[in-house]
Amino acid sequence: MGLIRKLAFKMLDDDRRLRIEKRNDKSIPEFLHFNTERHMPIVDIPARRGYLIFPSVQSFDKFKTNRSRDIDNIDENGMGIPLFLIERQLLTHGMTMIDTELTYKIFKYEIKKIDDVPPYGDFEIIAQNTNFKVYKYVYCKIYKASKLSQIALQFVFNDDKENSSYMVHKREFRDMDTSVMNVSFRWHVRYSPLENDHYKLALLNPREISLMDSPSVRAQKKKENLTKIDPYVTVIGHYTSEDDDILPHIIEKDADFFIGEQGSVANLGISNVPKLTQIFACQALVLHVIERQKENRRRRNTQRNAVMFHT
Predict the structure, then answer these.
(1) CA pair distance 79, 48, nearest whole angstrom
(2) Cβ neighbours around 90 below 10 Å, total
(3) Cβ pair 58, 265 in contact under 8 A
(4) In which residue ranges of the chain is pLDDT below 50?
């Protein structure tokens, strides 16, 4: 994000701009009764393919000070270790409107005691000392399916392959609908002439039509929604690059993901990150890659136009 856009957004109060609503009334499922929240930096490291997401700002700060793979100072909470790495996969052929193709892989980092059973399946040991091993393995595969009117992203988690989740959006629209634990959510981005990329993750009103609904459910909702309704019940998270690093660094914070959680105090390392947080963090990483692809296309078009009109 450019300096002018950054300053414009920073004029808004962070508490209002990035507010996560903590409510426990009956209109909200119990697993969304939050009393704390987590701030997860998304990081670009040019030497790596893809982007990392850290479980906390403090963990990212510790990572920046670790200049080697030595983990002697890391405890069982896994401070200083990223939670996920997302990598875009090379397409094997040109996609048609009926193709489904593996588009992204998300790798998880996990720390275990030296004698603990390793993760199931294929893994890589990326670091170890006398007490701990740090493993890296495929956590989620994301498949993209294109149709005439919409694009669907299927998330297949290695630990729960029978229950895939989806993110779906209409072509030419940026909002993404999703369903987690049989509850409908939407990643909503408000149109702005400043090319806003602040997505709010909101719980959908049960009466709001979702792209995740079956045709019969959509038809029934259209009959019932004769009056205008508020589409959102509560905001549970945010993705934004409004506070990315302006000046280039070897290790750059590219964006932030904020999410509500239950518990007394959020663990700042990679151990014991709630499952719900992990699912939405994977979705936030996909959003980030999509936004960066759009930004790169805009830059290439601008450069191409500049060449055309100066030759």
Answers:
(1) 20
(2) 7
(3) no
(4) 3-4, 7-9, 11, 304-309
Nearest partner of 300 among 310, 308, 288, judged by Cα = 308
As a whole number of angstroms, the distance between CA 34 and CA 19 comes to: 12
Rounded Cα distance between 110 and 273, Å, is: 11
- Residues of 187-219 as b/e, b for ≥16 C-beta within 10 angstroms? bbbeeeeeebbbbbbbbbbeebbbbbbeeeeee
> In angstroms, what CA-CA distances link 209 with 146, 185, 215, 268?
21, 11, 10, 37
At residue 195, the pLDDT reads 62
* Predicted local confidence at residue 295, as pLDDT: 76
pTM, entire model: 0.88
For the residues of 237-263, what is the DSSP string, one character each? EEEE-TT--SS--SSEEEEEEEEEE-S
What lies within 8 Å, CB to CB, of 281 at 6+ separation is 40, 53, 83, 84, 257, 259, 273
- Interatomic CA distance for residues 24 and 171, integer angstroms: 35
**CA neighbor of 269 nearest in space, from 134, 141, 140:** 134
118: tokens are 């390793």
| Predicted local confidence at residue 7, as pLDDT | 47
Task: For 55-80, write each residue's pLDDT tens digit.
Answer: 999 999 999 887 555 566 777 889 99
Could you tell me which of 166, 207, 204 has the C-alpha nearest to residue 188? 204
